[in-house]
Amino acid sequence: MGPSGSGKSTLLNLIGGLDTPSSGQVMVNGQDVSAASEAERADIRGTEVGFVFQTFNLMPRLSAVENVALPLVFDGWDRARRRERARSLLSEVGLGDRTDHVPSELSGGQRQRVAIARALSTDPALILADEPTGNVDTDTGAQILDLFDDLHAAGNTFLLVTHERHVAERAERIVHVEDGHIQSVEDVSGGEH
C-alpha cells in the first residue's frame, strides 16, 4: 500500500521478473529472479507467478476460455486439456456461462474475473495483483476481493497492490511503501505469518 508513485507497481514488476533490480536479490519460491537470465525469468513468470492487472490485459479477439488458456499454450498443454482447465477456472470465478464471450461482451468485473482465472491457469505459487479493483465499481470491487478471499482460503498466495485503505485491510498483512522504500509492515489479521 502506498500513494501513487511510491514504488508499488515497480515492486510487483521486480518480483514478477518483468524488471531487474539495480542491486539486491529478489527471491520467488526459492528462486533468485534477479540473477536469472531473461529466458529463466520468462519460465518463472510462466510457472511460479500469475499476474492480475488493473487494465485486465485480455486479448480482445479471444474468447474468455481462450484468454484463460493462453498461458497453457506456452506450457505445451494440448488444446483439449487447455480448454478443460480454462472452463473449470472460469466456473470457479463465477463465469461458467460466459466462456465463449469476447472481452467486449463482458462487464469490467467479468473481464477482471477472466484475468484472475488466467492468472490461476498455471497454478502459480504467487499471484501478483496490481490495483485489481481500480477499473471496476465499488460493488464489483468488493466481489473481486471476496473472490480473492475464497481463493486465498483454498491455498493461493496473493500480493495485492493498492492505494486504497479499505482494499488493503482485506489482507493479512499491509506493507507500506513510500519513495521506493518499505516504511512499515502492519499485521492486520492478528495471526502469525
Automatic annotation (TrEMBL):
Q: Which PROSITE patterns match?
A: ABC_TRANSPORTER_1, ABC_TRANSPORTER_2
Q: Name one GO molecular function term.
A: ATP binding
Q: Which domain of life is it from?
A: Archaea
Q: Which residues form a coiled coil?
A: none
Question: Which residue intervals define the domain ABC transporter in the entry?
Answer: 1-193
Q: Which UniProt keywords apply?
A: ATP-binding, Nucleotide-binding, Transport
Signal peptide residues are: none
User: Which InterPro entries does its entry note?
Assistant: AAA+_ATPase, ABC_transporter-like_ATP-bd, ABC_transporter-like_CS, ABC_transpr_LolD-like, MacB-like_ATP-bd, P-loop_NTPase
* One GO CC annotation: plasma membrane
Gene3D superfamilies of this UniProt entry?
P-loop containing nucleotide triphosphate hydrolases
Q: Which SMART domains match?
A: AAA
Q: What is this protein called?
A: ABC transporter ATP-binding protein
Species of origin reads: Haloarcula marismortui (strain ATCC 43049 / DSM 3752 / JCM 8966 / VKM B-1809) (Halobacterium marismortui)
